[in-house]
Amino acid sequence: MSARPTRPDSSRRTSATNKRTSILPKHTALFIDPSALIAQHAGFTGTQPITVGPNAVLHPHAKVSSTLAPVVIGENVVLWERTKIGVGMGDSMDESKRSSVASMASRTSVRDSSRGEGTVLGRNVTVEATATVEAAEVGEGSIIEVGAYVGKGCVIGKFCTIVAHCVLPAYTLIPDYMVVHSATEYRLNKTLLLRPQVLEMRISFHTTQINTFKKLVPNQVAKWVS
User: Fold this and answer.
1) Could you tell me the residue range of the domain that residue 212 belongs to?
2) Cα dist. 150→66, 74, 80, 102, 126 in Å?
3) Which of 10, 76, 87, 112 is disulfide-compatible with 69, CB 3.0–4.6 A?
4) d(CA 24, CA 72)
5) pTM assigned to the model
């Protein structure tokens, strides 16, 4: 009978594991609040500053890039799976979205030269799965739904909803409390505007979600702040 193969001892296995994790590059200008939740496979790239605020949540494969401009992720922001945040992240869009952005840009975009070229996500913002945000600013409590694209320099007001797969070309300006279907089609969300209790329930639900994520999702924040 042939001899059974021997397994490497535990010290060798541990050494191999350490080598694999140690080769991951560290972002050189990354500032993360210790209370943030950074899931496994979420990532940061670029050389300009990235700031992640208190209780922000980045789900697996959420990507934040400061290659071209700084990024600020505010308090209680939630980035779902495969979201892309930062100027230049829209370069990987498929051709149908690219053509849609190009066709609308000249008709709808208004540049605000007083704003910087970075990306700021305000308090309680949610960016849902596969959405891409290059915007200059997304206001407090706004939701960017699944697969939406918000172009460079856009300014989105407070408590807006950018509906699923909506495409907003660069420098589009959206007022507060709007439900946005395209750069030229949006309506006022009177329910949120006129009924404070509904707005409070929405914020409360958002906070409860974050607390649940912290119980269920393993936190890899130490990999980025150590």
Assistant:
1) 25-225
2) 16, 17, 16, 13, 13
3) 87
4) 23
5) 0.81
